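Sequence in, structure out. Go.
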Amino acid sequence: MELNYKTIFAKRKTLTITVERDRSIVVTAPEGTAPEKIRQLVESRKLWLYEKTRHVQKYDPLPHPPGKELVTGESLPYLGRLYRIELVEGDGEIRFEQKFIVPRAHAGQSPAFRAWFIAQAEEKILPRVASHARNLGVAYKEAKIGQGKYRWGSCTPQDNVILNWRLIKAPMFVIDYVVVHELAHLIEQNHTPRFWNIVRSQAPGMDKAKAWLQKNGALLEQEL
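Output:
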């Protein structure tokens, strides 16, 4: 069986291999690594990669398709809870007051809500990165909110931490788990037992968070 994979070269010391949620395989390698060495790594993990890429579904399916129209009575997830939408007259900004107050001018316009979610993610998630980094004793170059779909977060070879804006829909203990997970890669690049011990020490709700993502990940991936 031949496995297709993408190779990213970066200034780092070790080879790592990951399977994205779209089942694509990505190998990150030190600059100048011989293609044969990369191929040997993929070959050595072939059984594991086969199981990962043939996994039936990463997340539990949704019980029913979520509504995407911004109409009164519809609800959207925010920080782990569903809140009702209420349309009001006017064309001002979206507001949150234990429900979403949406000017009627934005009705049916999901980009406006997406922009609101991204702004909230920047305000509420990025400070968590700084806080957890201090607790872990690590330093990153930049933390930012990203718009990719197939990762909740990533720690780049340049020590930048990127977190998916969709996380703002999840409870804070899930957000903290993803943040700590990515920061732990600044200490241990691979998912070794040491890596998971580091994550668990800073995110004691790790198992609960992983179970929550298993159950609700498909909901988070919706645009709204």
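Check: Residues 62-68 have pLDDT under 50 and may be disordered. The beta strands are 6-10, 16-19, 25-30, 75-78, 81-88, 95-96, 100-103, 142-146, 153-155, 160-164.
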